[in-house]
Each structure stands twice: as structure tokens, then as C-alpha cells.
Amino acid sequence: xxxxxxxxxxxxxxxxxxxxxxxxxxxxxxxxxxxxxxxxxxxxxxxxxxxxxxxxxxxxxxxxxxxxxxxxxxxxxxxxxxxxxxxxxxxxxxxxxxxxxxxxxxxxxxxxxxxxxxxxxxxxxxxxxxxxxxxxxxxxxxxxxxxxxxxxxxxxxxxxxxxxxxxxxxxxxxxxxxxxxxxxxxxxxxxxxxxxxxxxxxxxxxxxxxxxxxxxxxxxxxxxxxxxxxxxxxxxxxxxxxxxxxxxxxxxxxxxxxxxxxxxxxxxxxxxxxxxxxxxxxxxxxxxxxxxxxxxxxxxxxxxxxxxxxxxxxxxxxxxxxxxxxxxxxxxxxxxxxxxxxxxxxxxx
Amino acid sequence: xxxxxxxxxxxxxxxxxxxxxxxxxxxxxxxxxxxxxxxxxxxxxxxxxxxxxxxxxxxxxxxxxxxxxxxxxxxxxxxxxxxxxxxxxxxxxxxxxxxxxxxxxxxxxxxxxxxxxxxxxxxxxxxxxxxxxxxxxxxxxxxxxxxxxxxxxxxxxxxxxxxxxxxxxxxxxxxxxxxxxxxxxxxxxxxxxxxxxxxxxxxxxxxxxxxxxxxxxxxxxxxxxxxxxxxxxxxxxxxxxxxxxxxxxxxxxxxxxxxxxxxxxxxxxxxxxxxxxxxxxxxxxxxx
Lengths: 349, 288
Ligand SMILES: Nc1ncnc2c1ncn2[C@@H]1O[C@H](COP(=O)(O)OP(=O)(O)O)[C@@H](O)[C@H]1O
Ligand SMILES: [Mg+2]
Description:
With 349 residues, chain A is mainly α.
């Protein structure tokens, strides 16, 4: 005997058959569709955000007293000099024209040049960006590995000593600001136990080991807070996922425990933690400014800070644009990942 | 206490010693606060045999069968007695050993099948996952086997069903999918704990028929758990009546139903005669 239910029996079984017809069209629930929606939403937000932020930074530059002639030539500038300079930089044109040509040039990769050094802003950024991306990227990596492991280990040992220890340490860490953590790390691992340099930076071309040794402390200082937050969110999400029947169901099938946790529970329990990463990315980008100051690293943060102190408007505008782009792109990635992870039942909306 | 609380044991008729697949003896299960939830339950089940466990909600049926899976709720533990499966002491198993037993030797289905499937993963993938990870099949072989299995359990359009998510399927379909997952590694024992409880009567009857067919076809032993006497009386050879963590009556199902000795069993039988599925089922039998 091979067939169990005869077609007649099943035809009578309306509850079994009805939904089949309704769901013949799979598209509304497919993961790819969710990802496309997330991408579309992300872009729909990113474009106006970019427009507004560039407009605002541009306006701040244009309407501040900053003036290349006054800034560069100083007190000795004659009115004629100032006028010539303003014309040279196009500052005598109407605002919308200036903004329009800035946007147009930016779209072509030209962010203007520093008022002081005449170095193209795009070049300065290209030089500094690897530093900031190294620190922020490594900090993110540390957060994911440290926070991920901490959260999983705590969740699997719910209520036991390990869980309480991890939770307590994570709670303590989130109260420490990045610059305090940075100074603390310098004192301990660069001064008391001098295993890492106190600050500075060498490019990766100087050797991966050397490059990494300069990054470890700043990346830790920057990533600790995110690790702690991630560990706490992951623990909470995973603990509630582990209580679900589908975890029991996966165990009943004899699937290895590691697979039950990493495939079945984590898939549904990780969403809040990933959302937390999304929230932390702007903080990592922003925090890099402070961390770069503490560790004296020639990154984007230092470039922006120096430009702000000198009133070098094109540089400020260019680096803010890049910072905003970084945040927008990374939150887009996070949202796409979240859309991919969302339970199918919640995807339809 | 009166004789009412003692077990009316007629001895499991079909089982002869040494032949039993499952031997549970004086099983005790305790809550973390020391409350005894199951107090000395014993039963045997022969290879390919069927056992019904009936009793009101909270009588310890689920905990008893969970001890056969080594999956008691957090904090609850077996504190006494023995649980032997095919000569193997299940109480002594470690986690990796349990993983070899669950699925491939003992399968289980439960009430609310949707909740036992991962909501984010298509049902076909959850079935082929077991076939690949535990059964060692290749991706394509697993897919083929999955489709074949679902087809044999009376599902239509299996290729479509395989790509669907749990929330897209009806209760009856989900229970078939769960049954397919439970038997895909060819276990010797299937536990069905209130597996038909949430289904409506027609579907319930179909799924019960399916259990019986699968049991005969695959030669597996069945433990059918329900608070509803009609469900267990329909397709089991032996019956266990539980109340407050103890077995109040045990014996061949027909005999227990025809001549209930314990007042609680009598109550169940009267209730069963008055309100149950029986009327519907008799009518269905008459139609065939
Ligand atoms: N996780 C738990 N914590 C504490 N008590 C529980 C838990 N699960 C079940 N129980 C108790 O154990 C007893 C038996 O439960 P159960 O085996 O689920 O009964 P049944 O399946 O017959 O309805 C009930 O009194 C119930 O309250
Ligand atoms: Mg139960």
C-alpha cells in the first residue's frame, strides 16, 4: 500500500484543500521580495536624507562668516583681494547656483579643493577614509564576534553563573564612554603593559601585523559599547527563541544541538540584535572622530575636526557627505539583512 | 484511600516479556519545587503495537511521553523508575546519544503543528534538512524523497507545498508535513501527543486514519495521547487511563471500554458515549 488518503477522502477535506488555491501565488511571501522592498524603502529614505543633509551643510558653510579670502589672506587682505578671491571660488554667485554646481560636481566625484592647501577634497578623503574604515570596521567586527559569542553563551546558560556574569559585564560596559575606554586601554595595554602603541597609524602596506597593532586598542575602545549592547539583545532574543516549540521540534528530529541553536533559534532570535547593530553604526562612524583624537589617528574624523577649526568649508562639506553616505549605506545593508531574516508570516506587509 | 485510586491492571495482553520495544517502569517525574507530577507510571509497548494514553488535561500524559524523548521542560526531571527502549536505558543517555535516538528511532508529532515548524523556513527545507543532516541524503535525493513522502501522506501539489511556509498551510496539511518529518528516518516508535486535538472533526478522522496506515505500513509502534477517549479508542490495542500523574486503569482497549472498572474511566466512557466522535465515525463507516 502506498497511497494513504484516497483522493475522494481528501476532496472532502476542505480545510486541507482550500488554502492551496489561495496561495498559488507565492510572490508576496518570498524572501527576495522582502529584500527588494527593503532596498526600495532604504533608497526612498536615503535620497531625501542626502539632499537635506548636503543642503544644510552647504547652507551652513555659505551663510557662515567663513570666507576664503579672510580665512586665507588674514587681516592684511584688501577689499579688492577679497573680491577677487570670492570670485575665484564662485562665492559671488547666487546660493542655489553654488549648491547646484557643488552637487553636480560631487556626483562626478569632485568635491572641490581646500581653501588653504588647494588639495582636492576627494583626495584628502581618499587618503583618510581607509584609516576610519579600518577602525570602524574592526570595531564592528569586534562587536559582532564578542557580542555574538557573549549573547549566545549567555542564552545557552540561562540563569547560570556564566549568564549572570556576562549580563553584568555587558551592563557595566555600556555605561563607559568610548573615550574613557580608550584612555583606560591606553593606560593598561600601552603604558603599564606596553604591548600596543599608544596611538598613531601605519597603512596596511607597512605590514598587516603592524597595521593591526595600531588598530587593536582604538577598535576595542570604539567597539566595546556595541559588543555589550549586542550581547544583551542577542541573549534576550535567543532566550525567547529557545523557548519556542520549533526549537523543541528541531530537537525531536534529532538535529545536532549546534545546528538547532545556530540555524533554527538564531535565525529568529537574532533580528533585534541586528537592528541594534544598525543603530550602532552611526555611533561607530561618529565615535571614530573622538577615538581618532584619543589615539591621534589621521582619519576622517581628524580631517573634519581640523577643517572645522580652520573654517575650511569645502573639506567640511565633503567629509560630512562621506560620513552621511557611510551611515546610509550601512543601514541599508542592515535593513536588507533584517528583511531577509524576517519570518515569512511577517513579510507580506 | 479507597480502591478507586489503585490501578486496575489487567496486564498488557499483547506484550510478552522480552519482546517489548518500550518498557516504562515506576516512572517518577518531579517539578523544580519538588512537586511530583508523574508518580509511578508503568507500561509496555510491543514492536509495531499501539498504546493509547488518555486522561484529563494535566494528568501527566505529556510529561510521560516527553521522558521517552529526553525533552522534559526546563527544571523538570525524571527522579525515579526506568525508561527502556529496545533494551537501552534512556535515562542514561547523554545529549549526543539522544541525538542518535530522536528522529531516527523515536519520532513525535504534537498539537499545534505550525508552532513546531520554524516560521522563517519553507516546510520543504525543514523536511529535507532532516533527510540530509540525519539521513545523509544528497540535496536532490532529499528533495525527491520529501516529495514522495508527502505524496504518500495524501498531500496534493507537493512541489508547491514544499516551497510554502508554515503559516501558508492549514492545520491538516501541517500535521501531515510534521508526520512526514517524524517518520522520514524510519523510526520504530511514533509518539502522537494530542496531535489531532486542534483539527476539526473531519480532518481529525483523516489524520487518525493516516497514523494507523503509517503504523501498519512502516511497522512502527504508536503511542497515541489524547484527553479525548474517542481519539485513542479508535485505533489502539492497549489503553492507559491516567489521572493526577498515576495510571488508574490499563488493559486492552476494547476490554477497558466495554467494562471500565475505575470510576474515572467509567465517567470517561459515559461522556464518550454521549458526546463523542463515535456517532460521526459510525456514520462514516456506514458510508464506506
Ligand atoms: N513546565 C512545567 N512547569 C511546572 N509544571 C508543569 C510544567 N509542565 C507541566 N507541568 C505540570 O505537570 C502536570 C502534568 O502535565 P502534562 O504532562 O502536560 O499533562 P497532560 O499532558 O496530561 O495534560 C500538570 O499538573 C502540569 O501543571
Ligand atoms: Mg498534554
